[in-house]
UniProtKB/TrEMBL annotation:
Family label: Belongs to the enoyl-CoA hydratase/isomerase family.
Pfam family, one: ECH_1
Matches recorded under SUPFAM superfamilies: ClpP/crotonase
Swiss-Prot/TrEMBL keywords: Lyase
Identification of the protein by name: Enoyl-CoA hydratase-related protein
């Protein structure tokens, strides 16, 4: 479908989502939340789409986060059940997402990136959770995902100061997977997506689900004992890919993944 504030393009099994409000540094307002929700619903339901990339239009920003000017002038603050950008509270998406961060990723923009599984960033990218500077808090997942990503003390150092972190420091802290030049950013993201798409999508979804659900278990023993109950792992065992992988290995050929 046609969108006003985002664009969605399919490149084989990869879907590229672009936040498309460059005039306001891709800040997110209520209509954009709902467009993103619809786009992720479609992506999740499409068996031909295996990996997603999220980026921002223009060279200045991935996303400046919540559109504060829209909020201050009485704009609607409604958002879907899936949360900020249709993603922050979407916990049933087992297809991997890559954030390609070009420029500013502030507040909700950083929270969108943190909701992805992999972050690649241009060397001019800047990350922060500056909500306390404007009397708010990073309640779209940032206060919970950042400590899980880099540890409590490092995360609190960012959260309690609202300070800006470069792509290079983000890589050192551990929440950025790879840093590239601005010109190479999307090629870098597509390389990651391509490497993922070479593998069984059923295996990838099972792996993602097991990692995140397992982190919520209180013990390693509980995580291992409970993983076979997870829907994506059950689906893997029943899938054509589960048969195709070993068969292709035995026949010394490239697997023909079906994703089902």
């Amino acid at each position: 479908m046609a969108y006003e504030f985002i664009s969605v393009e399919r490149e084989g099994p990869v879907t590229v989502f672009t936040l498309n409000r460059p005039e306001v540094m891709n800040a997110v307002h209520s209509p954009m939340h709902f467009e993103m929700d619809e786009a992720f619903n479609a992506f999740n339901a499409d068996p031909e789409q295996w990996v997603g990339i999220i980026t921002g239009a223009g060279e200045r920003a991935f996303s400046a986060g919540n559109d504060l000017k829209n909020q201050a002038t009485g704009g609607s603050m409604a958002m879907p059940a899936s949360g900020f950008a249709g993603l922050a509270q979407r916990f049933d998406l087992n297809k991997p997402l890559i954030a390609a961060v070009n420029g500013v990723a502030m507040g909700g923009g950083f929270e969108i990136a943190l909701a992805c599984d992999i972050i690649v960033a241009s060397d001019n990218a800047v990350f922060a959770l500056p909500e306390p500077r404007v009397g708010l808090a990073a309640l779209a997942g940032g206060l919970h995902r950042l400590p899980r990503a880099i540890g409590t003390k490092r995360a609190m150092g960012m959260i309690l100061t609202g300070r800006r972190v470069s792509a290079a420091e983000g890589h050192e802290l551990g929440f950025v997977n790879e840093v590239s030049t601005p010109a190479d950013l999307m090629a870098t993201a597509r390389r990651w997506a391509g490497q993922i798409a070479e593998l069984s999508p059923m295996s990838i979804r099972a792996s993602k689900e097991a990692v995140y659900r397992g982190l919520d278990e209180p013990t390693l023993e509980g995580a291992i004992a409970g993983q076979n109950r997870y829907p994506a792992i059950s689906a893997l065992f029943r899938s054509e890919d589960f048969v195709e992988g070993p068969m292709a290995f035995a026949q010394k050929r490239t697997p023909n993944w079906k994703g089902k």
